[in-house]
Design goal:
Elements: H1 21-40, H2 48-59, H3 65-72, H4 76-88, E1 92-96, E2 104-108, H5 110-131, H6 136-152
Helix pairs in contact: 1-5, 2-3, 2-5, 3-4
Length: 169
């Protein structure tokens, strides 16, 4: 007879890590990504940033892939793959860019607009849940400070930075 293994108890963040912003930012990202994935899983969005791409398309229709990638902080190749997948699902429309014949301009279809409405409602709920341990004033302060840190260090916000280089055979 095998005894079931009990899950490890959830321990508080060790004191040594509570003063390390890199550690706390990574852990917060884990929490945020998990909450977002759970809330949006039924919509078939493969990555947490896919909802951000859809919202960006809603707010800035007609932009090209590289501009969209930069706006959401994701590499252009991944953005292009997501746009192609959205186009295949009938969520995104692709047309030649009016100012650059080498590029395409992307916008949401009616189905894409409807999906963004649903996704936005769920994302707002995730944000509220994520910030729920804070007072309204604390949540506003946290968001302002996070935006300030990102703005100040934008030079280092390169898609793929910090990843391991590909292994060569």
């Amino acid at each position: 007879m095998t005894c079931p293994v009990a899950p490890a108890p959830k321990l508080p963040i060790p004191t040594i890590h509570r003063q390390v912003p890199q550690y706390l930012a990574r852990r917060l990202w884990q929490v945020a990504a998990t909450l977002q994935a759970e809330a949006l899983g039924e919509f078939g969005l493969g990555a947490p940033w896919h909802s951000g791409l859809l919202v960006q398309l809603r707010d800035t229709p007609g932009m090209e892939r590289n501009w969209l990638a930069s706006a959401i902080g994701v590499d252009a190749t991944s953005t292009g793959q997501a746009l192609a997948a959205f186009e295949a699902r009938g969520l995104v429309d692709r047309k030649p860019h009016p100012e650059d014949g080498r590029a395409n301009a992307f916008s949401l279809t009616e189905a894409g607009q409807a999906l963004v409405t649903q996704v936005s409602q769920r994302s707002r709920a995730v944000a509220a849940m994520l910030l729920s341990p804070l007072t309204e004033a604390e949540a506003e302060t946290l968001l302002r400070l996070l935006a300030r840190l990102v703005d100040a260090h934008e030079l280092h916000a390169r898609p793929g930075a910090g990843r391991r280089p590909p292994r060569r055979a």
